[in-house]
């Protein structure tokens, strides 16, 4: 009597190997790309964080591959909170993709704070938030992130229309 678990287990193994391989490949890519970052400091510089992330990704990917080879597969999702009868809302997906593209275009045109506020507000609205509440939170969040990066960390995000404003122009 066949229960049908053998094909599922073989498919799950392939999926787990692919996942581990992709994570490891992303780690290798991150490590190689981190080497291209120009750093003027001898101590911990701009390369430290990408190197750490790359190593963690590589170790995690290899660990997933080794675990799969030893037969330790992840448990299949039972879907207890998932309504399988509900279909994907492609309109919401399209809105979110359009907002991401708009964000990329707007960064150079109006600066990061405005582009981020559009992205944050638009994403919240697309996911069902009241637009004016989302707008208020998005503007505050975008400005706080800009101030933290520009003034607190000394990193430059394009200020755009806020060019010359002391706290916002990095």
Automatic annotation (TrEMBL):
Keyword Phosphoprotein: no
Organism domain of life: Bacteria
Record field: transmembrane: 17-36, 48-69, 96-127, 134-157
Keywords: Membrane, Transmembrane, Transmembrane helix
Domain DUF1468: 18-158
InterPro entries: DUF1468
Record flagged with keyword DNA damage: no
Xref: Pfam families: TctB
Name of the protein in its database record: DUF1468 domain-containing protein
Organism: Saccharothrix mutabilis subsp. mutabilis
